[in-house]
Each structure stands twice: as C-alpha cells, then as structure tokens.
C-alpha cells in the first residue's frame, strides 16, 4: 500500500469528519451533525460525504433538521494555497429540510461577531430530489407547508472580492403538497 493511498483512504476521512463536526460546533454550540462515509478523490479533486444529518435550534423557538443522501464538493487544489478557496458545482443528493417554528421568541445576541473566514468562490450548488417541510405552531394551532420533488440550483456565490458584490441567481421546481407545481426564481446578495 502506498503512503498516498493510505493517507487518502485511512487518515483523511476521519480527520475531515472531525474537522467538519468541530467547525459546525464552533459556529453553533447547540447544533449537531453526523456524517457517514467520507471519501477524498484527487483525480478530479473532490470531497464526497454520505448520509449527512444536521440538527440545530431551540425547542419551542426555531428548530432545523436537515439530511442528505450525499454531498459532493469539487475543489481546486491550487486554490487551497492561493488564499481564495474555489469550489466547483456542489451537488446535494436527496436533501430533506424540516423547519419547525414555535411561539418562543429568543433575544438577539447583540455581541455575536460575524465570522471572517477565508475568501471562497463556489460555481454553484445543485440539489436533486429534495423535500422541504415548514411547520409553524402558534397559540396551540399548527400549520404546515410541504414541497417535494425539489430540484434546485443557485450560483455562482462567494465572499471573494470578485463575487461579494454580485447577486446569486437561483431556480427551484417541485410539487407543493396542497396545490401542485412549485417554481421559484430568485436573485439575491448572499454574503453581503
């Protein structure tokens, strides 16, 4: 077994899994993330994670649960050394997101400082065969919005000098449970 193969197959996956969990916890102490298999490919350069689950929020306020069958993130090795991280088209297979919003209103943390990380550029993010559920509970009454079969794409986006002043264009289609087809087109400043 070559040293490179050993590093790629045995050492890199648990290190990457630990790094991702640590970064999520540092950004959100109440959040949890679990990640199944992690694979690092060098030709072409890409990171693939499978069976990802995320949960965060405060009970009776806003809670978010998200999962995906797989996430693939192509990257530029040269950009890791240049100061601006460049990622290709990130693909998310079978994403499922559920947002629960309750009556509890939490005070805003006025002392929270926005993290200033590395500059990055993403060609785009593409999701296929996803679900989104929004559930609202207010004064004992419940309402729910469900969108299934979501296919979406947004990009380019990033916080680099090149992209920070540009809007990111997005498009999504799916099936709204109560009324049929759903189409959403957006254009927004994501990292301003």
- Percent range for β-strand residues: over 45%
Number of DSSP-assigned strands: 11
Shape: globular
Rounded to the nearest angstrom, the radius of gyration is 19 Å
Structural class: alpha+beta
Task: Calculate the mean pLDDT score and round it.
Answer: 85
Stretches where pLDDT falls below 50 for ≥5 residues?
none
Largest sheet: 11 strands, mixed
Number of helices: 2
Helix content: 10-25%
N-to-C terminal Cα separation, in Å?
A: 47 Å
SSE topology string: HEEEEHEEEEEEE
Task: Please tell me about this protein's structure.
- It is a single chain.
- By secondary structure, the chain is an alpha+beta fold.
- 15% of the residues lie in helices and 55% in strands.
- It contains 2 helices and 11 strands.
- The radius of gyration is 19 Å and the shape is globular.
Q: What is the secondary structure topology, with strand pairs?
A:
Blueprint: H1 3-27, E1 32-34, E2 38-42, E3 45-57, E4 62-74, H2 79-82, E5 84-93, E6 96-101, E7 119-138, E8 141-155, E9 157-158, E10 168-176, E11 180-188
Parallel strand pairs: 5-7, 6-7
Antiparallel strand pairs: 1-3, 2-3, 3-4, 4-5, 4-6, 7-8, 7-9, 8-10, 10-11
Write out key terms for the chains shown.
192 residues, eleven-stranded mixed β-sheet
